[in-house]
Amino acid sequence: MTAVTSLDQFGRRIEYLRISVTDRCNFRCVYCMPQEGLQWLPKAEILSYEEIIEVVRQLAPMGLSRLRITGGEPTIRPQLEVLIRGLRAIPGITDIALSTNGVRLPTLAPMLRDAGLDRVNLSVDSLQPERIRAIARRDLGFDPVRSARAATDAGLDPLKINMVVMRGVNDDEVEAVASLTRDNPWHVRFIELMPVGDSRELTWERVVPTDELIARLEAIAPLAPNDGPARGNGPAAYYTWPDAAGTIGFITPMTHTYCASCNRVRLTADGRLRTCLFGDHEVLLRDALRAGEPLAPLFTRALSEKPKEHQLLQMRVGGLRALSQVGG
After folding, report:
1. DSSP letters along 264-293, please?
2. pLDDT digit of tens for each residue in the chain (328 aa)?
3. Rounded Cα–Cα distance for residues 64 and 153 (Å)
4. Domain 4-325, CATH class in plain words
C-alpha cells in the first residue's frame, strides 16, 4: 500500500520522479537552451549514479514508483546503462522511461533495454534535415525516423514522439508528423510551445493552440479518443485516426493547464528536488545525502510546500533560464 507521505498538501499523490542526470546537451534547441549554452554545473555538484540510486532507494518506499531519466540530453552522460540497471533493482520501481533527442539511440537502444529501460520519449520537431539543423542549431546528422525504429526494434515500447509546435517555424509539418502513426505503432504528441527564460523571444504569437491542431487533423480524418497503450505518467490526451497503428496526443500547458492532476516532482542534476517545473520551490537533497542524513523528512516537507499550480501563463518561472536546466 502506498504510504500517505506521497500526498502533497492538496491531496495529489506524487508517484513520478523525473531525474535529470546532466544539464548539458548536444543540441541547442531554440525553445530549450540559449545558442551559446549555459554556465554548466561544476562536476563536484552533480550527483553520481550511486547517489541518484540512493535517493530513489530512500524515496521509493514513500510512494515513488515511476521514473524518467532526463537531461539536458541524458545519453551524453557516459554509461547511462549503469544507472538504469541500479534503478531497476530498487523494490517498488515499476516503470523507467527515458526522454532523449534521439541522436544516440541507434547505438544505445539495445544496451539500455537490456539494462532495464522500459520505454522512450523521442523529441522530433521536424522531419526535414535542414529544419532539424535550424531548430537544434547543431548539425549532427539526426534522422528521427531511424532513431524511432531503433527504439522499437530494441523493444522500447510504447514509443512516444514529442513535437513542440511553433507557428511559422514547424507548424506546417504537423500533418506529416501525425501521419507517422498510420503505419507505425508510435504515439505522436504535439506540445504547445512554452516561452521560458532566454527563449521568450518565442512569444505567444508562436504558440499554436491545441484546438487548432485538432481541427486541422480532423480535416484529414476523424479523431476518436484513445486510452490505450500510450497512456502513461503524463497529462496528454490521446486520439487515433481510423485504422491507424499508433495514436496522436496533445499536451496543453498554455491553453488547458493540468496542474490539478500533477503527480510528479523533479530531481535536478545537482540534487535539488523541484516540486513544480515552472515554480521556484526547491528542496536541496544533495547535502543531506552526502552527510548520511535521511531524505524522508525533506521529501515530506517538499510535498507539503508543493504549489497548487504553475505560473507560466503569468511568465513567472522561478528564475528558470532554460528547460534544459530541469529536464522539461
Report:
1. EEEE-TTSEEES-TTS--EEE-HHHHHTT-
2. 444 468 888 889 999 999 999 988 888 888 777 766 567 789 999 999 999 999 999 999 999 999 999 998 999 999 999 999 999 999 999 999 999 999 999 999 999 999 999 999 999 999 999 999 998 888 888 999 999 999 999 999 999 999 999 999 999 999 999 999 999 999 999 998 876 555 555 677 888 999 999 999 999 999 999 977 665 556 789 999 999 999 999 998 766 666 888 889 999 999 999 998 777 789 999 999 999 999 999 999 999 998 887 666 544 444 454 454 555 5
3. 29
4. alpha beta
Domains of the chain by residue range: 4-325
d(CA 60, CA 19): 13
Distances (CA, A) of 238 to 29, 161, 179, 241: 26, 13, 15, 11
What b-and-e string marks burial along 185-202, b requiring 16 or more CB atoms within 10 Å of the CB?
A: ebbbbbbbbbbbbebeeb
Q: What is the pTM for the complete model shown?
A: 0.89
